[in-house]
Design brief:
This protein is α+β, with helices and mostly antiparallel strands. It has helices spanning 2-7, 9-16, 53-56, 66-78, 84-93, 101-110, 113-119, 191-205, 231-239, 256-276, 283-298, 317-321, 337-342, 344-363; strands at residues 33-34, 40-41, 59-61, 96-98, 143-159, 162-175, 181-186, 210-213, 243-246, 385-388, 400-408, 414-423, 426-433, 437-441. The strands form 4 sheets. A 5-stranded mixed beta sheet has the order 7-6-5-8-9. Helix 4 crosses helix 5 (84-93) and helix 4 (66-78) packs across helix 6. The radius of gyration is 33 Å and the shape is elongated. The two termini are 27 Å apart.
Length: 450
C-alpha cells in the first residue's frame, strides 16, 4: 500500500474525492479503484464473473520501484530463469498488474547474473585495423605467421611382425604480405626439432624480420605440447635478429591469416591421400606431398579471376616466388622488346614490378572492409566478473574469474584482458581475448542484479 501511495498519490486523492483521474496519469486507462483493504486495483469490466478478485481486479504495481524489482526477481526465479514472457505471465497469475511491465521485466532480466551465465553472449569488439606487416611491400617471407598442425602416422621401418609407425607434424609458414606458404615436416614436438625446421626455412627463403603466431600452448591438434617460448628458440631468434609476436591464448581469430591456410592444406592433403590410396605413408612421401601442397596453395589467385580479355594475368604468390607465369606478360614501356628477349634479368624485374603494382592497386583494396564486428562495444574494465569459455566442458561448468587488467590495443580498444581465477584452490592469472568471456557483473553496476 505504501508503495502505491508513493507512486500514485494524486490517483488516491482523486478516487477519494470521487473525481476523474487526470489525463496525464499513467494508469488512467485501467480505471483504478480502491478495495476494502485500501489497495489500488484495476477496475475492469469483468467484476461480475465467477473468477476470484486477483484475476478480475489485479493489484496495480508501479513499474519504477525497488519493491517491484524484488517482485520481478522472485517470479523470475520461480519460473527457473526463463524469458520475459514466462516471468510476466507468472506475475499476472499472482494477481498483480505491472505498469510498464515489459520494460521493467526486460531491464531486470538484463541484469540477472544467472541468465547471463546460462545464455549470455560472448563479448566482441570492432574489428581492428590490419597490422603494418600485412600491408608492406617487402620481399617474400620477410613478415611471416606460423602454426603447427598434424599429426600423421608414418611408417619408418619394417619388422617381422609388421610395420613400426611414428608420428609426424608440419610447420606452416605463411608470408603475411604476398600470402605465400612454406611447409616443413618435423618429427617431434620439441624445441630442437622446431629450430631445425626454422633453420631449413631460413636457409631456403631467407631470414624473416618478424614472426607472428599463437601461443605454443594453443596450437591446433596434438601440438599443444610445443612451447614456442622456450629459451633455446628465443636465443636462436636473437642471433638471427628476428622478433616474435605472440597472440593472446585462445585467440585463434587473431591468426586468421595462417589458420585459414592450414584448413586449405588439410583439405588438399585429404584429397591426395584419398586419390593415391597409399598402403603405408612414409616420411619421404609425406614430405613430397607437403611440397606439392605448397605449390598448389601458392598457385591460387589472390584476386577474383577477371573475365576481361585485356587483363589475362592472374595474381598468385608463385608469380613472385618463381618469377614464372602461365600467361605471357606484355613488355614494359621503358624496355625495348628486343632488349627484353636478350636480357633475362629485365624480364624478372618486370614481372616483379607487375606483381607489386597489381598487388597495391587491386589486392589491398580487398582488405579494406570489415566483414564482421563493425560496431564499437563497451570496454571490459578492471573488477568485472566474467565467465571463461571452456570448450572441454559444458557451459554450466565454465569457471568464473575477475578482470584484473584491461589490455589496450594500438587503436585504444580493449580486445584482451588479464583475469584472475581460482583453479584447484590456487589463484591463477590468465590472459584471454574478450571473445572467450561472458560478462556476468560489470564493475559499473555496483553489484546490481546479484
Amino acid at each position: 500500500m505504501n508503495m502505491q501511495k508513493e507512486s500514485y498519490p494524486n490517483e488516491f486523492n482523486n478516487i477519494h474525492k470521487q473525481t476523474n483521474i487526470l489525463k496525464q496519469s499513467g494508469i488512467r486507462k485501467l480505471h483504478p479503484a480502491i478495495d476494502e483493504e485500501g489497495l489500488l486495483r484495476v477496475g475492469g469490466r469483468i467484476s461480475h464473473s465467477c473468477l476470484e478478485i486477483n484475476r478480475t481486479n489485479p493489484l496495480i504495481i508501479p513499474g519504477q520501484h525497488h519493491l517491484t524489482t524484488l517482485i520481478v526477481r522472485h517470479h523470475h526465479e520461480k519460473v527457473k530463469h526463463q524469458g520475459r514472457h514466462f516471468t510476466e505471465g507468472a506475475i499476472r497469475d499472482a494477481g498483480m498488474w505491472l505498469v510498464g511491465g515489459k520494460r521493467c521485466i526486460r531491464g531486470t532480466l538484463f541484469k540477472c547474473v544467472t541468465c547471463r551465465r546460462l545464455r549470455g553472449k560472448i563479448e566482441d569488439q570492432m574489428m581492428a585495423d590490419l597490422p603494418a606487416d600485412r600491408l608492406q611491400v617487402a620481399p617474400p617471407f620477410t613478415y611471416i605467421g606460423l602454426d603447427v598442425f598434424g599429426p600423421w602416422e608414418v611408417t619408418y621401418r619394417r619388422t617381422r611382425g609388421g610395420q613400426a609407425s611414428n608420428k609426424r607434424w608440419a610447420v606452416l609458414f605463411t608470408c603475411l604480405c604476398v600470402r605465400a606458404v612454406h611447409i616443413e615436416v618435423i618429427e617431434t614436438l620439441s624445441a630442437s626439432s622446431f629450430i631445425n625446421a626454422l633453420r631449413r626455412f631460413f636457409s631456403i627463403r631467407g631470414t624473416a624480420k618478424q614472426i607472428r603466431s599463437d601461443r605454443g600452448t594453443n596450437f591446433t591438434g596434438a601440438s599443444k605440447e610445443l612451447d614456442l617460448e622456450d629459451t633455446s628458440i628465443q636465443r636462436y631468434l636473437q642471433d638471427q635478429q628476428c622478433t616474435w609476436i605472440f597472440n593472446p591464448p585462445h585467440a585463434s581469430h587473431m591468426g586468421g591469416a595462417w589458420e585459414r591456410l592450414i584448413g586449405v592444406a588439410r583439405r588438399i592433403l585429404d584429397s591426395m591421400l584419398l586419390q593415391q590410396r597409399f598402403s603405408s605413408l612414409t616420411h619421404e612421401v609425406l614430405v613430397t606431398l607437403m611440397a606439392e601442397i605448397c605449390a598448389i596453395i601458392n598457385a591460387r589467385p589472390l584476386l577474383p579471376v577477371s573475365t576481361d580479355p585485356e587483363s589475362p594475368l592472374i595474381l598468385t604468390p608463385s608469380m613472385l616466388l618463381t618469377q614464372k607465369t602461365g600467361t605471357p606478360s606484355s613488355p614494359p614501356s621503358d624496355f625495348g622488346k628486343a632488349e627484353i628477349l636478350r636480357q633475362q634479368w629485365k624480364q624478372v624485374q618486370h614481372l616483379a614490378e607487375t606483381f607489386w603494382h597489381k598487388w597495391q592497386r587491386e589486392y589491398l583494396n580487398t582488405l579494406q572492409s570489415r566483414t564482421k564486428w563493425q560496431d564499437k562495444r563497451p570496454y571490459l574494465n578492471e573488477g568485472d566478473i566474467v565467465l571463461m569459455r571452456d570448450n572441454a566442458v559444458k557451459r554450466n561448468h565454465w569457471p568464473m574469474a575477475m578482470v584484473t587488467k584491461a589490455l589496450l590495443s594500438r587503436d585504444g580498444f580493449v580486445r584482451a584482458v588479464e583475469v584472475r581465477a581460482i583453479k584447484q584452490g590456487i589463484p591463477k592469472v590468465y590472459t584471454r581475448p574478450i571473445t572467450e568471456l561472458v560478462v556476468l557483473i560489470s564493475s559499473k553496476q555496483n553489484g546490481e542484479g546479484v
